[in-house]
Design a protein that fits this description.
This protein is α+β, with helices and mostly antiparallel strands and about 180 residues long. The chain is built from 4 helices and 6 strands; from the N terminus they run H-E-E-E-E-H-E-E-H-H.
Length: about 180
């Protein structure tokens, strides 16, 4: 039973890490190279993330600069940013692409808060599904290996405690991100 619980704990940990990655892509009032993560550049027939084609840096709080290693990829990177859902307009001088991030409006901030909360709820549901799978595994072990009712109850309590712990971590991450988004 310990192996089963441990395996499901690893699943929950991976799910939490994926959630943190998702949160990094949500734009806040500050520039962050992470907002470019979902953008894929069509480069010689392959779809590559920008960070594999260029150096991405944040010299100012509302500015991202992209310096391609291969100057011929400059146009492809610009095109990928324009066609992405970021809503940013790149400007280039032939060597560097600059992305000026406009200040977020109050309306846009609230949309981002709702997006973060939706992402969090999806992740909570994923945690509950992992809990259900773990509990199903314990039930199968009860039938197959003849676990006592006390062992089953103890195992399910441990799984519930683990689920509560991970959901609390999700809630904490959401609070921090919402505060960051609402910060002016």
């Amino acid at each position: 039973m310990d192996r089963l619980i441990s395996a499901h704990k690893q699943e929950m940990q991976q799910s939490l890490e994926d959630f943190h990655e998702q949160l990094r892509t949500v734009r806040t009032g500050r520039a962050s190279p992470a907002i470019l993560t979902p953008v894929k550049v069509d480069y010689y027939g392959a779809k590559l993330p920008i960070n594999q084609l260029a150096t991405v840096s944040v010299p100012e709080p509302r500015l991202i600069t992209i310096t391609p290693w291969d100057k011929s990829s400059l146009e492809a990177i610009e095109k990928a940013i324009l066609t992405s859902e970021l809503g940013l307009s790149p400007s280039s001088d032939g060597n560097i692409i600059r992305l000026a991030l406009p200040a977020l409006t109050e309306e846009r901030r609230e949309e981002l808060v709702k997006l973060v909360q939706k992402m969090a709820e999806e992740n909570r549901v994923q945690m509950r599904n992992i809990r259900r799978d773990a509990n199903d595994g314990i039930d199968k072990m009860e039938e197959g290996e003849g676990l006592s009712e006390d062992e089953v109850r103890r195992g399910k309590a441990e799984v519930q405690e683990m689920t509560d712990e991970f959901i609390e971590k999700i809630d904490q991450a959401v609070e921090e991100k919402v505060a960051e988004v609402r910060e002016i």
